[in-house]
Each structure stands twice: as C-alpha cells, then as structure tokens.
Design brief:
single chain; alpha+beta; two-stranded antiparallel ribbon
Length: 158
C-alpha cells in the first residue's frame, strides 16, 4: 500500500475518471466507497473549469480503489473425519449449485456455518458486483475444503 504523497496531486478530471474506470466501480460506487456524495463526485469528474478541483485525499482514495488486489490463492485440504468438524471450514464449489433464490457457480468460496443430517449450510462471500451474500443449505456434495495460502511462505493459513 503506497503512502500518501501530496507532491503527486493531479487536479485533472480526466485522471480521476481514469481512476474510476480502473477501479471497476461506477462513479456512484466510488463515491460511496470513499465517503463523498454522488453530486460531489460528479463535480470532481466534470471537465468544466469552473468546478472545484478534487482535493488530494479524494485522489489518493481513488488511487487505492483502482489498485489491483491479487486474488487469494487456495490449497485443497483433506476432508475432516467427522461431519461435526465441518463447521467453520472454508470450501470451494466444484460444481454449480442453486436454490429458489439464485445460482452459485463452481469456484465460489464459502464457509460451512452448520452441518446437519440433510447436509451442510454454506454462507458465501459477498458478490463483487452487487454486494449480496448467498446462503445455501442441505448441500451434500460438490465442494472441496480449502484454506488460503500465505503468499510469504506458501503455507496454508489455518
């Protein structure tokens, strides 16, 4: 994570627009993420010379949003011996699953919240595009146990 450096202040609205595009969020999404109003964000991005230039903290926040964050790497873990030990474990779907509310594609990461006779209840991470969380119950197959790999030493973070 870079440190703020006021000497890098760029007041160009086109530079700020490029940061918004690089973030993958909408103008409204960026405004919400950095804590300013939609209207203020539009003013900062306006090419109109009479509009107020964005202060450096806004620029820095947009630069942080636009930085590429590496996807975490996962390692497959052995299946716990007892079903009661499934709770709290991370899983990755190996096949698509669905219920009455939606579908989850293979590769989605979730956490088993409870284990019962009908199968596992899985709570998935927030969707990057809409922010919704998805929960599915009675899942018996179609997943593998995983843990995040520590990028520094290549070991699973338990």
């Amino acid at each position: 994570m870079p440190l703020p450096d006021m000497s890098k202040h760029n007041t160009s609205p086109s530079y700020l627009r490029s940061l918004v595009e690089a973030s993958g969020l909408s103008q409204r999404g960026c405004a919400k993420a950095i804590g300013i109003s939609d209207r203020q964000m539009r003013r900062y991005l306006s090419p109109n010379p009479h509009e107020e230039a964005a202060p450096y903290p806004v620029q820095f926040a947009l630069e942080c949003l636009s930085m590429e964050v590496p996807e975490p790497e996962y390692v497959v873990m052995p299946v716990p011996r007892l079903k009661r030990d499934y709770e709290g474990k991370n899983i990755r779907l190996t096949s698509d699953i669905s219920n009455g509310f939606g579908d989850m594609k293979a590769g989605a990461i979730g956490t088993i919240t409870s284990q019962g006779p009908k199968g596992s209840s899985i709570y998935f991470e927030r969707c990057a595009s809409c922010g919704c969380r998805y929960s599915v119950s009675a899942v018996r197959t179609g997943f593998e146990f995983v843990e995040i790999v520590d990028s520094m030493n290549g070991e699973a973070l338990l």
